[in-house]
């Protein structure tokens, strides 16, 4: 039987997006204060970072959103772009998420979020995200970048001595923790919301990668190009408030062009290594798992960070290129 949602419009192309802008946030982080940064660092890995038992039914949805469906014959997989941190005023979520969730048999996230409270996981993170040898931020950064970082830390009231052993990925996490909290963001983003809801409803949950794989990704951020990475991150942090506002508007409406403009194009121009490791490599690793879902009974809802869905190397474009019919979940005709 046909398991497709009625959709508002087909996505003719997910790659042609001409707008240009800055990359706003390279990785969605959890919020907290500096004194809690180490204890709460594990939460940001729920990032990052972005999906119906349907039997010939039409699910009405009143507005566009960052939820799509990929279809092959009668089989459908739904993909939802997520924001890993949200504010209280960002709820309720767009209706398309609830529609896809209600009709799903299984949900897949970037990682198994239930493991994040494991003390062993937290210990591994702290060991792998800090320098265990003689290196410090001052020794790996050039003088200009280190001075800019020190000035930023001083202005924010953060002691550089506390952060000297942080690897660049952990540094960005710590600085972002404070910036996000000051703007009212909490870890209750789309991923956490639906993971908790699925647990309560007894729905099967899966993960596209292991926690250790995501820790390795974070630990490797900026490796070999530390100064460029930190300088790039500091520039983004300067405009993070405006950036988050723009990103939330684009996410809620499923504006692929704006999402690519904010995430993809600037990262390609200013930090291509980051783009490759954070998005391209991981998207490529997920594709065999997503394609295998079309051969499984039932319907899956894949929820990953919104940046993973857009652009030439995004999941939507790759599915379209491989012959799947990709459509936005929208209002019923």
User: How many H/I helices?
Assistant: 14
Largest β-sheet summary = 6 strands, mixed
User: What's the N-to-C terminus distance?
Assistant: 20 Å
pLDDT < 50 runs, ≥5 residues: 1-62
Q: Total number of β-strand segments?
A: 6
Count the domains.
Answer: 1
What value does the average pLDDT take?
81
Present the secondary structure layout:
Elements: H1 37-40, E1 67-72, E2 75-82, H2 95-102, E3 106-109, H3 119-128, H4 137-140, H5 143-156, H6 160-163, H7 168-181, H8 190-201, E4 204-207, H9 211-219, H10 226-238, H11 240-253, H12 256-270, H13 272-293, E5 300-305, H14 315-321, E6 325-328
Helix pairs in contact: 3-9, 5-10, 7-10, 11-12, 12-13
Task: Describe, in plain words, how this protein is organized in 3D.
The structure is a single chain. With 333 residues, this protein is α/β, with parallel strands linked by helices. The chain has one domain. It has helices spanning 37-40, 95-102, 119-128, 137-140, 143-156, 160-163, 168-181, 190-201, 211-219, 226-238, 240-253, 256-270, 272-293, 315-321; strands spanning 67-72, 75-82, 106-109, 204-207, 300-305, 325-328. Strands 4-3-5-2-1-6 form a 6-stranded mixed β-sheet, with helices on both faces. β1 (67-72) and β2 (75-82) form a beta hairpin. Mean pLDDT is 81; it is low at 1-62.
Describe the structure using short key phrases:
333 residues, alpha/beta, six-stranded mixed β-sheet, globular, disordered N terminus
What is this entry, summarized?
With 333 residues, the chain is α/β, with parallel strands linked by helices.
């Amino acid at each position: 039987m046909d398991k497709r949602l009625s959709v508002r419009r087909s996505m003719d192309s997910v790659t042609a997006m001409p707008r240009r802008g800055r990359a706003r946030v390279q990785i969605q982080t959890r919020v907290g204060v500096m004194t809690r940064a180490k204890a709460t660092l594990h939460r940001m890995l729920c990032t990052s970072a972005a999906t119906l038992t349907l039997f010939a039914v039409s699910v009405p949805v009143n507005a566009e959103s960052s939820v799509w469906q990929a279809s092959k014959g009668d089989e459908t997989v739904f993909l939802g772009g997520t924001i890993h941190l949200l504010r209280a005023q960002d709820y309720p979520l767009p209706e398309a998420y609830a529609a896809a969730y209600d009709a799903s048999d299984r949900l897949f996230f970037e990682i198994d979020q239930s493991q994040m409270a494991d003390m062993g996981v937290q210990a591994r993170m702290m060991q792998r995200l800090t320098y265990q040898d003689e290196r410090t931020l001052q020794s790996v950064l050039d003088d200009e970048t280190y001075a800019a970082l020190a000035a930023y830390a001083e202005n924010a009231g953060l002691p550089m001595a506390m952060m000297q052993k942080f690897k660049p990925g952990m540094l960005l996490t710590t600085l972002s923790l404070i910036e996000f909290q000051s703007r009212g963001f909490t870890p209750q983003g789309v991923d956490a919301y639906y993971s908790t809801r699925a647990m309560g409803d007894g729905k099967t949950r899966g993960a596209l990668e292991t926690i250790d794989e995501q820790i390795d990704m974070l630990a490797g951020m900026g490796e070999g190009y530390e100064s460029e990475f930190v300088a790039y991150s500091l520039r983004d942090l300067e405009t993070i408030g405006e950036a988050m506002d723009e990103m939330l508007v684009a996410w809620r409406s499923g504006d692929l062009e704006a999402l690519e403009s904010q995430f993809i194009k600037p990262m390609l121009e200013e930090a291509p290594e980051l783009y490759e490791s954070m998005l391209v490599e991981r998207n490529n690793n997920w594709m065999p798992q997503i394609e295998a879902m079309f051969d499984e009974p039932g319907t899956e809802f894949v929820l990953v960070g919104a940046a993973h869905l857009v652009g030439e190397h995004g999941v939507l474009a790759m599915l379209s290129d491989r012959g799947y019919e990709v459509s936005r979940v929208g209002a019923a005709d």
